[in-house]
Amino acid sequence: MIAMLMNCVAEKTNAHSDIIRSVAFSPDGTKIVSGSHDKTIKVWDLDKLELLSEEKTNAHHLYVRSVAFSPDGTKIVSGSDDGTIKVWDSDKLEMLSEKTKAHSDNIRSVVFSPDGTKIVSGSDDQTIKVWDLGKLELLSAKTNAHSQLISSVAFSPDGTKIVSGSWDKTIKVWDSATLGLLSEKTDAHSNWI
């Protein structure tokens, strides 16, 4: 029944040459960014699913696992298996800043804070890190935040909290300024988050 109610408004086949790991809407809802195992980042027009700018080939040395738009839509952040976080101009896909060795293992999730001044990252190294957007300087880090890899991180709408999900089946909520643990739910799912 649900399938009958859902309509596909646009489809792009062969959008990348390998697995697509992450997609995100621009804040104004007119664009989509995609990141892939083919190491590329692409920005698409939502209505036509046509490339809006030249794709960024070899955006990272290894898989691109996470992409997200800034709240104002002018920037894109990407995280990769190469342990690097990069910030891009969303129109031209020119790199604005880069943090090599941001994590010691694959970066699975990156996202901007609601005010666009910070980035949070989660990694296979079980660490959550908060970065200042300006120079990608580390503001805070929580090592051993989970007992297994961190698959997803997000800011609360007011920016005061960060939520993380992990392969340890746990959801945790953190203070975004101190990364102090506020609450957690163990066995939130029967399998990986």
CATH-defined topology: Methylamine Dehydrogenase, Chain H
Q: CATH class, anyone?
A: Mainly Beta
- Which radius of gyration do the C-alpha atoms yield? 17 Å
The largest β sheet comes out as: 4 strands, antiparallel
| N-to-C series of helices and strands | HEEEEEEEEEEEEEEE
Bin the strand percentage: 35-45%
* Class of secondary structure makeup: mainly beta
Low-confidence stretches: 1-9
- CATH architecture identity: 7 Propeller
Domain tally: 1
Describe this structure in words.
This is Wd40 repeat-like protein. This protein has one helix at residues 2-5, and strands at 20-25, 31-36, 41-45, 64-69, 75-80, 85-89, 95-99, 107-112, 118-123, 128-132, 137-142, 150-155, 161-166, 171-175, 181-185. It has 193 residues and is mostly beta strands. It has a single domain (18-156), classed as YVTN repeat-like/Quinoprotein amine dehydrogenase (Methylamine Dehydrogenase, Chain H, 7 Propeller). The strands form four sheets. A four-stranded antiparallel β-sheet has the order 4-5-6-7, with no helix packed on it. Strands 8-9-10-11 form a four-stranded antiparallel β-sheet, with no helix packed on it. A four-stranded antiparallel β-sheet has the order 12-13-14-15, with no helix packed on it. Strand 10 (128-132) and strand 11 form a beta hairpin.
